[in-house]
Write a structure and sequence with these properties.
Helix content is 38%, strand content 21%. By secondary structure, the protein is of the alpha/beta class.
């Protein structure tokens, strides 16, 4: 079902360039529900009992930050009931429900986070993430031909990778894995090749200067404001945090401020910072 989310985005843009985030999340949940139901049908065809469940049926509870929600709690009663009946349980990734029973989504790559959150709730020792690459590489293998696959990587290194643009694992999934000491195994869904293990890996060379890998992120924009005083500078991070907008590299020099944000949040950031950056 790869690319289906992009199709849904295109459909929404045909209607309006500024659709409500709540409605976008309602739309995005469709793709995952198609996937899990078809997978359950495939198991049934070969005689294996299976059941597909969405975030509402499982009760994956999140906050109300549409488009980039945080998982608060995963209820496991329904999952355990189905497992006790010897069924394979297939749960929609990337989605949750808030306290008002509205669907939410966890951000691009959020299926990883769903998987690790389920593993944590079920007290699993490990969680395998099957993807379109054979593991975690020292660089994007589509850009760097001789990128090397890593056998092991620590949670902290993987968090840095994810936060700085590596798309192989959702950063929230790594954070949950670290907090619950769940070993992550990243491997290809197309081959039997051994993957990369993300854990409390201790590198014997860690006290020496070393580079684990190189990442890039094309989907960021730098916003720059001029003639900014120190008092105004302090308000920038406050306003962005208040509106649940993520940012990096906040710098202030010579009355000029710059901040890096995700490209999808540019319009929201400009609206929030308008009175600071664009004075009448």
């Amino acid at each position: 079902m790869g690319g289906y989310t992009d199709e849904l985005i295109s459909l929404s843009k045909e209607i309006s360039p500024n659709v409500p985030k709540r409605e976008m999340d309602m739309l995005f949940t469709v793709g995952e529900q198609i996937s899990v139901s078809l997978m359950a049908m495939a198991f049934d065809k070969i005689g294996i009992p299976a059941v597909s469940l969405n975030a509402f049926q499982v009760r994956i509870l999140t906050n109300e930050n549409y488009g980039d929600a945080e998982i608060i709690k995963v209820e496991t009663d329904r999952i355990k009931k189905e497992l006790d009946e010897n069924k394979i349980v297939i749960v929609t990734g990337f989605q949750g429900v808030d306290k008002n029973n509205n669907y939410t989504t966890l951000g691009r790559g959020g299926s990883d986070t769903t998987a690790v959150a389920l593993a944590a709730a079920l007290k699993a020792d490990s969680c395998e993430i099957y993807t379109d690459v054979a593991g975690v590489y020292t660089a994007d293998p589509e850009i760097v031909n001789n990128a090397v696959k890593l056998e092991n990587i620590s949670y902290d290194e993987m968090l840095e990778f994810s936060n700085l643009g590596a798309g192989v694992l959702h950063n929230k999934s790594v954070k949950i894995a670290k907090e619950n000491n769940i070993k992550l195994i990243v491997r290809s869904s197309m081959t039997d090749e051994e993957g990369t293990i993300v854990s409390n890996f201790y590198n014997k060379y860690c006290n020496l200067p070393k580079i684990t890998g190189v990442t890039s992120n094309k989907n960021v924009v730098s916003l720059v404001g001029t003639d900014i005083n120190t008092e105004t500078k302090d308000k920038v991070s406050e306003i962005l945090e208040k509106n649940n907008l993520k940012f990096n590299n906040l710098r202030f020099t010579n009355m000029q401020i710059s901040v890096t944000v995700d490209s999808k949040d540019v319009k929201s950031c400009i609206r929030c910072l308008h009175d600071l950056f664009f004075r009448k």
